[in-house]
Each structure stands twice: as structure tokens, then as C-alpha cells.
Design brief:
about 80% helix, elongated
Amino acid sequence: MRNYGQGFDFFKKWFDFIKPLLFLLIVLEICTFYGIIPQHIFPSPHRIAVGIIELSSSGMPPGYRLLNHFTASLIRVFVGFSAAFIVSFPLGILMGRYGIVNRYLSPIIESLRPVPPLAWLPISVLWFGLGIVSKSFLIFLGAFFPLLSNTILGASSVEKEIVEGAMTLGAKERDILLKIIIPASLPYVFTGARIGMGIGWMTLVAAELTGVKSGFGLGYMIMTARDLQRIDLVFSGMAVIGITGLLIDLLVRVFENRVLRWKSYSAIKG
């Protein structure tokens, strides 16, 4: 029988989460309506909503609709984040499990991690041009280090007694990795995924704002609206970016809860 109580609790938590945002929108609408905040500085929320509709129907520049820009940006994020996960997950497991691997690779990782992804923008353009690869490379850098750091933390957090007990019972190293180290690392991996996805999304939009002069992308759309002095559409584009980031984080949370159901089960059994 389906548990409708859990679904109600989920929507209640979601509503509690967005209540401050709704309150802020109401305050902004009142302030802009009565001229407390000039609309040429900050458009009212309903103008921003109308701007989103305009971007979806007419586009910015005309003919370049919101869906086209959104799809282009989302594809770049997906490619870059997927590459970051494919590289960081096995590397993080190895560095967290084997001290010798960590000792040799940690100095390299720690020397590269403080460099902001956007600092690589000129290099990425020189290496890959202005296409999807250069943008995906920047997203890769933004997502890679949070994913790697959290995977290392998860793999190294397994208690030695558990590993030694499994080895005593005859478990091979492959079994220890697949049945102990990796499952114990998953909660940390999802935390890194949420952080990495957020950084990757911000990096993409910033890269499009600075590095894309034509084509599709939310950053390019915002820059075009700015050049045409359409501040309402600039804020509409920013709203789309914020909403998308929020929805991506929500989807990662939902996926995490589905994958890690064993955590709740273990807590009940324990």
C-alpha cells in the first residue's frame, strides 16, 4: 500500500522551504508597485515572469527562444558533469582506499584545486575553441574537485575494524571495494555531486557571459538582453538560472533518497 503520508511530508517540507522566497517576492512586488524600488533598477516580479514568457515565445535575440538557450546550457552541464563524475569517482575511491595513491596524487590535486574554473577560460579556448568542449571543460573543473574530495572522504571514513573483519572472513580486495568501500562512500559522493553540480552550473553561465559571443546559451541570452537595455529580460534570464539550479539540486536530492534507502533501513534495523 502506498504511503501517502511521506508524500504529504515531502510537499510540506518543500512548501516550508520556498515560503521565504514567496515572502520576498511579495515584498518586492509591493516595493516596485509603489515606486520604493525603481523598476529601471529592479523590475517587479510580475514583469520578470512576463519576461520569461517573452523569452519563451519571441526569444532573445528574436528567434532564439528560451528553450534553445536552456537546452544548449543543460547539454554543456551534462557533458561536463558526467566527465567529472566518471574521472573523480574511481580516482577518489583509489585515493581514499590506498594511502600510497593518495600520497602521490594529493600534491597535484591540492595545487590545482585553488585555481578558479574561470581562470582556465583562456586556456580552454586555446585548447578546444569556442564550441561545447571548452565550456564542458570548465564545468568539468568546477564539478571535479568537490566530487573527488567527498569521494576520498567517504572511502577513507570506513572503519578499519570492518575491513579487517571482512578480510578475516575471506573477503577479497574486489569484494571489499564493491561491497564495503563504495556503498559507504555513496552518501559523501552525493554531497559532492550537489556541490559540484551547483559550481558547474554557475561556472557554465559565467563562461557563457564572458566567452560566448553568438549561438545559444543562457549567459549569451542575458548578455544580448543587456546590450539591448532590456533589464527586465536580464532579470528574467537570471530567474531561469536560479530556478534551474534549485530544480537540479532537488532532483539530486530525490535521486539520493531513492539510491540510499538502505541508510534509513539500516537505521531502523539498528
